[in-house]
Amino acid sequence: MKKQIFAAAVFLSAALAVPMHAEIIEQVLVKVNGDILTKTELESRQVAAIRQRMQGQVNPESLKNDETLKKMLADLTPQLIVNAVDELLLLQRGREMNLRLSDEQFKQVVAGIRKDQGLQDEAKFQQALAQENMTMDDLRKQLERQMLIEQVQRQEVGSKLNITEEEARQYYARHPEEFTESASIMLREIFIEVPSSEAGINVAKDDEAQKKIADLRARALKGEDFAKLASESSGSTSKANGGLIGPFSRSDMSPQLQQLVDAMKPGEVTNPIRVQKGYQIFKLESMKPATLQPFDAVRDLISDKVSAARTQTEMRKFLARLRAQAIIEWKNDELKKAYEKALAAEPAGGQ
User: Fold this and answer.
1) How far, in Å, CA of 347 to CA of 287, rounded?
2) Quick check: helix, strand or coil at residue 107?
3) Is the peptide bond before 272 cis (omega within 30 degrees of 0)?
4) Which helix (H) or strand (E) holds 328?
5) pLDDT for the residue 72
6) Cα separation, 197 vs 28, whole angstroms
7) Residue 136 has what pLDDT?
8) How confident is residue 278, by pLDDT bands cut at 50, 70 and 90?
């Protein structure tokens, strides 16, 4: 149901070009067991897909004139046609299974949409619907469409998946990098700023800062508490926490600092480093190596990953069976070719 709320929220903000409830004479592109996909419906999908790809608003008229958009449209359309046909097949299967969106479910989903979108006020909600050229009936049809598709996928594919212990362990063994916690490093720093002016760096001030950072390092090496020294003398905001920074991975550090830390042991302090605004020293507080998490600790995560991969494969097989049993009548040869091209590009074994 959360997926339905999310999908509906996206739908409400998509602003498709054509009202769902428009009743005009349509050009039929394909019939799937008697249900139709029209030119208007395909164009709406094309506009929505390009908006999503470009993360912004797209003028439908520009699809006819802009060469970049026309190429993007040509690339997207084959899969959009496959998706449209597959949705019709899934909806038909849902009707055969007597699935429907109950009044109570509809109320719950709409309440979720209104809360997420800040539309609890009835006037604002109705205004939002009007801006999308939608009625409550349009919204219900859209939500029921989504619900039927999700329920069919769940009952026909998802509920039949059973991830065995052996499968999970094989995945764990083949993908250790997915379950390895990155190495982490904790440092403490002391920073001494070199004052500057429009005339540039004052050499005497630079020498003074250099001597101060060297003295602080010497005191730390003699055993004084580095955190206390940082709190008292550092010019960095980290002084409030005793100079503590991190944890972070090695890749987050500059190449210069990486080289220094790689040669250090916990407790050691670097030589002074000249930085843009002054001098710094670092103490290696701790270094935690990359660690492979135990299988039992990530068992649920592994099941999710294996299930997701299996679901995609099984869903392709299920849809291939529905297509094979369907009567698909094409009214446009170019779209038929695009459809067949997209199916041919599906991963091997999906059919």
Assistant:
1) 43
2) helix
3) no
4) strand 328-330
5) 86
6) 74
7) 92
8) very high
